Each structure stands twice: as structure tokens, then as C-alpha cells.
TrEMBL record:
Alphabetical list of InterPro entries matching this protein: EmrB-like, MFS, MFS_dom, MFS_trans_sf
UniProt source species: Stutzerimonas marianensis
Keyword Membrane: yes
Domain Major facilitator superfamily (MFS) profile: 15-461
Keywords: Cell membrane, Membrane, Transmembrane, Transmembrane helix, Transport
Protein name listed in UniProt: Multidrug transporter subunit MdtD
GO cellular component: plasma membrane
Amino acid sequence: MPHTAVLDARTARVLPWLVAIAFFMQTLDGTILNTALPAMARDLSEDPLRMQGVVIAYMLTVALLIPASGWIADRFGSRRIFFSAIALFTLGSLFCALSVSFNQLMISRVVQAIGGALMLPVGRLVVLRAYPRREFVKVMTFIALPGMVGPLLGPTLGGWLVEVASWHWIFLINLPVGLVGCLAALRFMPDLKSEVRTRFDSVGFLLFGGAMVLITIALEGLGELQMPHARVLLLMVIGSACLAAYWLRAGHVETPLFSPQLFHTRSFAVGIFGNLFARLGSGALPFLIPLLLQVALGYSPAEAGMSMIPLALGAMLIKPLAKSLIDGFGYRRILVVNTLLLGSLIASMATVDAQTPTVLLLLHLGLIGVVNSMQFTAMNTVTLVGLSNRDASSGNSLLSVVVQLSMSLGVASAGALLGGFTVPGAEGEAVLQAFHLTFLCIGAMSMLAATLFFQLDSKQTMAARLIDEE
């Protein structure tokens, strides 16, 4: 078992700040990019409606590496891995800013994502092992606060930087923060290692990761990559075969990447599959909305960024009420109704056009933020609430993977639909119609998850704590 750190007073005070800054860098990067996509597309001579690969490359890489993060930290030491994670994220940011082609930018985003995938899981693991259980919730609450500020600040800051400088600065602002983070990691991050060498399920990792990559590329092939349908079908079949092979194998090895036993807990199984499908819609929104506002409705980057603020504000406002609402109505009722409402609100974005009053648009986005945040909180909690202490770590890791994977699939699906509905050379009203049809389809897809949440026990209510990483 990994040993527990004994922290001096100064390190105990600084460590939560260090992990919080890493969390802030990650959440800021996840939202600051979207408002800059049209400007990046113009500079790189790409179609702004086919820029989803920049977003997907990051999310998919993070999803791939999350399962290995704990084992890597135990094997090589938390200080070395946390320092390397911040350094890679910072270096990847520099490479992104220096990119002169779409392919260079994609590769740079992968480098950035390798660091991003390790920062928060390793930081959270160190906090779990370094602080007494009575202080853990308080420390993690402090660390989560910057994660709420990132989505609030990101879109506006991204739009403003594009207008007053250039899109390169959305990556360059990470450099000084990353440099300070690297120095602080060397000074204050405890160096925890596992005293016992555990075998990593490398075959399972390759099968599971291969399935995620192949299925995502297949969806991308329908959109941005414009692959022949035969190749897309082949990728989907191979990806599905890899996933089937993983689950068949996982039931017969001693330490699988994710044990099939987890799915014997009904609330976990429903929560995982519900997350996967419900987040197809919510994951597509940060990509679709800034594009709609700039490409179809003529908003400036700064105006599009500020229009996203109600999404984050709505999400923050509902947080204090989530526990009492779930305690009062139960998981099944909340998730079924909330999923249908979220899908309807996403689909109703098809009514937005140049004549829509700004106040009405902002209210619409704020309501989406409220419902979306309630969805995240309820889905995350119901997924883990029924797991034993022995299975909680593995279940949380799989949930984190599914969150990232479903968001990347959401962006890929939105890109494929948008590309399919857009007639070559389309302008003006034809482009707006493509967005409207895409929102209708994404909303309908999200609503299908309600059938999954209906399978929950109607009497199940809230656990002692909320699981919330949004």
C-alpha cells in the first residue's frame, strides 16, 4: 500500500493551492478555446465548422490516460509525475501557440492533454493520502472552487484575447502559471510511491483505449475527416470488437483495468450508461454555441464569450440546492425529468436566430446552465453512491473516463451532424439552418438517456456527500 505523507505546516497550507491552480489551468483551458475556434480556423485556413478535432484530441487523450494515472504516480512517485504533468501541459501550450497548421495544433493539443490528464488525478490522490479523513472534504471543496471559476472566466477571456491580441494568447497565458506551478511542485509536492509493485493491466489498457480511439475517429470520419462510409464502418466494427474483447477478458484476470463486477451494482451501471448518453448533448454545447453565435449570427469573439457567462452562473447558482432537491424527489424522478428538460432546452436552441432578443438568449443559456449542472451532480452521485469502499476508487476512475469520453463523442457527433447538414459553399440562412437541425438532433439524443434513468430504484435518495467534478 502507498504510505501516507507527513506534511510540515507550510506544505500543508500550500499543497491545496498547488492542486487548485492545476485544476484551474485545466478547466480554464477547456473553456477558453471554444470562442477562439473561428479565429483559429481563419488563421490556419480551415473551415470553422470542422475545428472539432482540436477539442476532441484533448478530451480523448485525457480519457485514455486517466486509468493509468494512479499506477504511474505509484510507480514513479507523485512529485515527479505532478511536476512532469504541469511541465508537459505548459510545453504543449507553447507548442499550440507556435502551431502554423491544423495538424501541428492537433499534435500540440495531445502533448498538452497528456499533462492535463495527470495533473488533477495525481493531485487529488496526494491530497487523499496526505490529509486526515476529517480534513479531506474541506480541502477538496477548496480545490474545486477554481474549477467553477474557470468556466466562468474562460469564454469571455478567450473572446477578449482574440479581439485585442490573437488566438495564440489563449495558450501563452498558461506559460507563467505553468512555470510557477513547476517550481512549486518541486518544493511542496510530497513524493509518494507505492511500497508494493502492482501489475498494470497493459493488455486491457490497449484494448479499452483502442476501442475509444477507433470509435471516436469513426465519428470524426463522418464529420471533419470526411472519410468514405466503408472506412467509417470498418473503424466502428474494429472499435466495438476491441471493447467486447476487453470486457470478456476483464472477467478472467486478477487486476483488470476496470472490473465487470462494478456493474453488478445497479445504480453504478445505470449511472455510467446514463452519463455516456446524457453528456452527448451537454458535451457538445461549449463547442456548438460559440460557433453558432460567431459563424451564423455574426457575434464578435468577445460578445460570444460574454454570452456564455449565464451557462456558468446558472451552474453555480443551483449547486447549493442540489442535495435537498435529490433528497426530496429521489434520483429517478430528478434524473428522468431533468434529462427530458435538458434535451428539450438543447433542441430549443433551434429557435435562436438573428431576431432573438439578447436578453431572451441569455435567459435561455442561463436555464440550460442550471439544468445541466443539476444533471451533472445527480448523475455523478448516483453512479458512485452504491459502491463499496473497495470498489469506490475503480468506479470513480471509470466515471472520470466516461465523462471525458462522452464529451469528446458529443463534440464528434455534433461535428458530424453539422458537417452533414451543411451544404458545400453554404452561407447565411443555410448555415443557420444546419445549426438548427444539429441542435434538434443533439437534444433528441440527450433525451434518450431518460429511458436509462427510469431503471433506477424509485426509493434511492442522496448519499452523505455529493460527487461533483464539473
